[in-house]
Amino acid sequence: MRAPSIGTILTAILLGGLLCPAAHAGLGPQNVLVVIDEAVPESVAIGEYYVAQRGIPACCVYRVNDPPLDTFEQVIDNLATPIKQYLADEGLTDQVDVLVLTRGIPYRVGTNSMASVLHSERDDVWPGYCYFGKNGVRNPYFGKAEHFDYNRRYERDAIPIENRRIVMMLSGFSVEEAMINIDSGVLGDETYPAGTVYMISAKTSTGQPRLYPRHDQIPPVRSQLTSLGIASEHIVVTSESAAQIFDQPDVFGYLTGRSTLTSLDTLTFLPGSWADHLTSFGGDLLNQGGQTSILELTGRGVAGSAGTVTEPCNYWEKFPHALLYSRYSMGFALSEAAWMSVDQPWQTIFVGDPLSAPFAVRPVVEVNSPRDGARVGDTVELDLHVYHPAGDAISLVELYVDGKFAQTIATYGPAFGNLVTLAVDDADYTYFVSGSETSSFLLKQLELHLAGQPTRAEAVRPADPGEIAFLRVESNVAGTSGNGIPYSISAQQYIGGYLGVVVRADGPETVGGMDAVPDDDLDAVPGVGHVYLSVGLPDVDIQHTFDASGLSPGEHELMIVAYQGDEFATQGLARLRINRRPPGPSGVFGAVEALTVEPWPL
């Protein structure tokens, strides 16, 4: 075993500010739009199965009937534009973050994937086979560590791609195999699987075109997985023929570069798993000859995969980066991790359940009243208990009616007059709270205070000015292979009301150290530990009055959604049905209608 060759240990403290009271944070069933082609029986069966399994609201299902979709112009005119108009008409424009296509919708348009056409709606970005996107347009969500939000203005290389949604597809060689894929995503939720991520690569010197592009990505990602408590193996080979695994019962991740995968029947893929193989036509979904289609993976219980629909050449930018596994293991949804990982997605199709989140720690919403199915009049009195099972903060609670955002129930933020002391190892900083701070702002103050201290800190900013995605704390202490360097971070609050700062470590509070492969290219690398700092309250009781006078008579569904108060913005929800009573003749709810009395028969 080799000791780390460099002594800098990185501690990534991921955090986020207070959420705005709008219906677009995190991902839940109300944040997807399922597109079903009524002319294709498989599309109907797969789409309706997914809707049922995920509890997708009826308003979040869009049905078409065999529209012409052979060219870029036809896709824009017959699919992209009508979808946007539907979302606008239904009041869902700001709510829907993900488009979910079903088998029957083409997965390829010209040389590019349907996912990329609907995502960008631009015909000047297409690389065409073995080229990068024109005009420097690349995926602005690549490499992020924040929940996807349609309402953000993502920008990269000074060229924005504004308001573009994530696009996923549900498909299979058969309806049954598509259902297996969907079940894997649903059953994997919050299971924190004790599986292994298997990553196979080769050095550049071997000349293996499918195996060397991702070789250097793997060691730092393994280090991140180690600090998250996720097992991984890096298998270094010299030929493509050796680039597959056999007889593994615990596959949570599978990264390789082999055109044909022949050992899949010997593997057990855990619910929520991801797997992909860097090859030319893995995304040519229904081609069952030649190279292995990614549907061979999803049909065997993989929750998600990605591949290119036309010849991409072996640019790693067109395939999932290994960082997908660290993002996914940090709690992001499968669709977010997938789109964070592909730099140039214009030829890539993404297949799988967009909402699958095996490592999410979701808030819990308990509804004390009204009871499910209750009959109501003009108002509904909600009595709620909302908490986070890991003690993290709740920052926002929203109400949806029949799948559509209705109103903000509660927000939680810092209180004026409080003092908070933030400490990283032996350095600390005490801050007086004015009442408008976010966790990002507080950690910025810590960064400034730690300048020149033995423990140094640097704020790493996302695209939006003034916000901080995470704080990177560096220590000049070297670790040894298989051993981590301990760190500590805490927040203490006193005086005044509550500040509501929660500090939670994810996994062991150590960074660095991993079992190094005895190879010059694969020394143990700096570790990354994850600590989440949130502004909000971990446990709240809420009484809220909802004005139901505008609802039509009959049954309606209420969805109460609570958001975790950090950069992940993970959401938890509760549903209940209410029955809106029709008004009587006098306009008073519950009035008895006139009865017709028939004479008793003689």
| CATH-derived architecture of the largest domain | Sandwich
Strand content: 25-35%
Discrete helix count: 9
The CATH H-level homologous superfamily of the largest domain: Immunoglobulins
Highest-level CATH class of the largest domain: Mainly Beta
Please, how many domains? 2
**How would you state the average pLDDT, rounded?**
78
What ranges have pLDDT less than 50 throughout 5 or more consecutive residues?
1-25, 454-487, 494-500, 504-532, 586-602
Termini separation:
102 Å
Give the tally of β-strands: 32
Helix content: 10-25%
Characterization of the model:
The chain is of the alpha/beta class. The chain has two domains: 1-22 and 360-582, Immunoglobulin-like, CATH 2.60.40; 29-189 and 282-352, no CATH class. The protein contains nine helices and 32 strands. The strands form ten sheets. It has a five-stranded mixed sheet with strand order 23-24-1-29-27. It has a five-stranded mixed sheet with strand order 17-32-31-19-20, with no helix packed on it. A four-stranded parallel sheet has the order 3-2-4-9, with helices on both faces. α1 packs parallel to α4, α5 (218-227) packs parallel to α7 (323-329) and α7 (323-329) packs antiparallel against α8 (334-340). 50% of the residues are buried.
